[in-house]
Specification:
By secondary structure, the protein is an alpha+beta fold. Helix content is 33%, strand content 23%.
């Protein structure tokens, strides 16, 4: 299933669940000086999450995102990028865990027909409510539910200990199992392992607490839902490939780079170039030109890294 159809199906599904379909925000977040780039689907809904309810309490989007946190992992793993699209559904004081979990499962297993035995889930170790929903309502086996700690299944990661203050909560992640032949091969391998066997495809965040100074958590007056699913990762699953770089989102770019290199180049380097081409293109499209500071410096860095990686695979002329 092509990525364009996946995006369309996702938005159609949540439109059917009475969500307002909101177009992707710019990579340059409007009126938000706290971040350089839009890095998640929830960025454009910060006012709603803070209780400033508008004419809708449910929303869904396919948001273009740019992150540099995992820059060194790009090309080294099958699923890390600087630019990507995040499919997300959101609730601002409306539905909560039960609906978010049920709808995620319905979309993956009924609309996309992903075999249930290929899916695992993780829950926050102290979130018995989410655990029971998965176990009793969804009826997923105990052996497919993993309880993880503050770093993996609380959002923001380790917020209780390290902050920042503000809305936060436990999360539940859905993973696709590529099979025992992939990764470390250990019998007890599960989604807590980073060997590559399990790909996290959807993160369901249950924003229900307000972190205060000193690490105390008080319940929010309105409990919110913030989910994010990488379109590139979902496309890899649905297209039967083990790397995002083998999907239709990347394949034409990768082929052109390999063709220009004129030999059998290091594919990890090719993937870095392909990723950076997408990131710099969408950033420039949204008005960020290369410069020596702030957002422009990020674009300049991506271009420089792209050029240097092109040279490593034999592309000497102007190419990007």
């Amino acid at each position: 299933m092509k990525a364009d159809l996946l995006r369309k199906k996702f938005l159609e599904f949540f439109a059917g669940k009475k969500h307002k379909i909101v177009v992707s925000d710019s990579l340059v977040p409007a009126g938000d000086p706290t971040v350089l780039f839009t890095s998640a689907g929830m960025n454009q809904f910060k006012k709603q999450f803070l209780g400033q309810i508008t004419d809708f309490r449910r929303a869904a989007s396919s948001q273009k995102c740019l992150r540099t946190d995992d820059l060194d992992k790009v090309g080294q793993t099958p699923f890390h990028h600087t630019f990507f699209e995040m499919l997300g559904n959101f609730s601002f004081g409306d539905y909560f865990k039960k609906e978010a979990i049920a709808w995620a499962w319905e979309f993956l297993t009924e609309w996309l027909k992903i075999p249930q035995d290929k899916l695992w889930v993780s829950v926050y170790k102290e979130d018995d409510e989410a655990y029971q929903i998965w176990l009793k309502d969804i009826k997923i086996g105990k052996d497919k539910i993993v309880k993880l700690g503050d770093k993996e299944n609380f959002w923001p990661s380790e917020a209780k200990q390290k902050g920042p203050n503000g809305p936060c909560g436990p999360c539940s992640e859905i993973f696709y199992d590529y099979g025992k032949d992939i990764g470390c091969g250990k019998k007890d391998c599960d989604p807590a392992c980073s060997c590559g066997r399990f790909a996290e495809i959807w993160n369901l965040v249950f924003t229900q607490f307000n972190r205060k100074e000193g690490g105390s958590l008080e319940p929010l007056p309105n409990r919110n839902i913030d989910t994010g699913m990488g379109l590139e990762r979902l496309a890899a699953v649905m297209q039967g490939v083990k790397s995002n770089f083998e999907t239709d989102l990347f394949e034409p770019i990768v082929k052109e780079i390999v063709k220009e290199a004129g030999r059998s180049p290091n594919l990890k380097i090719v993937y870095v170039v392909a990723d950076h081409i997408r990131a710099m293109s969408f950033a420039i499209l949204d008005g960020v030109l290369p410069s020596n500071d702030n957002r422009g410096y990020v674009v300049r860095k991506l271009i420089r890294r792209g050029v240097n990686n092109c040279r490593q695979i034999g592309i000497k002329k102007a190419f990007l």
